[in-house]
Specification:
The chain has about 325 residues and is α+β, with helices and mostly antiparallel strands. It has twelve helices and seven strands. The chain starts with a helix and ends with a strand.
Length: about 325
């Protein structure tokens, strides 16, 4: 026979547990109150702030608009999309990191030629497609149909493709030869940069495109040439030796032939962005890394090596990644 005191204690403990769970659930919600102003007025306020944003007031502008998102997410999206299609497109680059979302990314990528691209718009497209990779499909689909582009449009498209993460590299290799003059001009500028990482990326692009760094790019940034067919063949002994540019933000404590090592990357790595480590040995590798914030995959590299590609899958930018690896014999 159950003891009444034991039953009462069990019921009290159960009630306390349910009460605690209820409080926990309630703590996840907060009362935001009524909207501070009507939707029409919200449109006017957001539009004005986007029109007047500049490098000096950008932080305060973004902070103000973020404070309204609980009530006016759709309003902010509508006004950002309208700004992209209007005369104030370039100012979006100042606030797109804080205010851009998947809907804005998708609409901007779909309407990338409205009313016409110029190089100052490249960072906006690059940031949004990098963060919301699915939004890049319409943009790349249009480019694969090789539309006729003006000089500024060709330069913008090439700048975006050259700066996107490696997941878009195969598509870029199909498109860039159509606008070889613009692409070569940009890569020539990158080779003269003081940023060694940008120089290294330019060298890898020239190698993968099978272009010489000294090729004449005087055909004009809008010149369109017939693409060279590029077969995805493996690198053979007849290929030029792989370039190995210095990467100051990467510390690699491994050497050719080492059975294990540690890889680190530093700097601000955006959400959904990728970081590539090269020159790892072929074969199965055991990887130890922060799986909560990073996704890792191995792909074939140059010669007898493979590459490790890390993708930032966290909810925001990451400042550092560390990977311990060892070969499985």
């Amino acid at each position: 026979m159950n003891h009444p005191l034991r039953i009462s204690f069990f019921r009290l403990r159960t009630f306390a547990g349910v009460f605690a769970l209820s409080l926990s659930a309630l703590a996840q919600f907060r009362e935001i109150g009524p909207p501070p102003f009507p939707p029409a007025q919200a449109h006017e306020k957001v539009r004005l702030l986007l029109e007047q944003v500049d490098p000096v007031n950008r932080r305060q502008t973004a902070k103000t608009i973020v404070g309204w998102l609980d009530w006016y997410r759709d309003v902010v999206d509508d006004e950002m999309i309208a700004a992209w299609k209007g005369e104030n497109r370039v100012t979006l680059n100042l606030v797109v990191d804080e205010l851009g979302d998947a809907r804005v990314a998708a609409e901007i990528a779909r309407s990338w030629r409205q009313p016409g691209l110029n190089p100052a718009a490249a960072p906006i497209l690059t940031k949004l497609i990098t963060r919301y990779s699915e939004s890049g499909a319409p943009f790349v689909h249009d480019l694969l149909r090789t539309p006729e582009l003006s000089g500024p449009e060709a330069e913008t498209v090439c700048r975006v493709l050259l700066d996107l993460p490696d997941r878009w590299r195969d598509n870029a290799l199909q498109v860039l030869p159509h606008y070889r003059g613009a692409a070569q001009s940009l890569l020539a500028k990158d080779l003269r940069e003081s940023d060694e990482e940008k120089v290294g990326r330019a060298q890898f692009w020239l190698r993968d495109l099978r272009w010489n760094a000294q090729d004449d790019a005087s055909g004009g940034s809008g010149s369109r040439q017939a693409p060279r067919r590029r077969e995805p063949a493996a690198i053979t002994s007849s290929d030029p030796p792989p370039l190995r540019p210095p990467q100051p933000t990467v510390s690699q404590t491994t050497y050719i032939g080492a059975p294990s090592g540690t890889l680190t990357c530093g700097g601000m790595i955006p959400q959904n962005a990728e970081f590539v480590f090269r020159n790892l040995p072929r074969g199965q590798l055991k990887l130890d890394y922060d799986t909560k914030n990073w996704n890792a995959r191995l792909v074939a590299g140059e010669g007898e090596t493979q590459r490790l590609i890390l993708t930032n899958v966290s909810s925001g930018p990451q400042k550092k990644c560390v990977v311990h690896w060892s070969a499985i014999r």
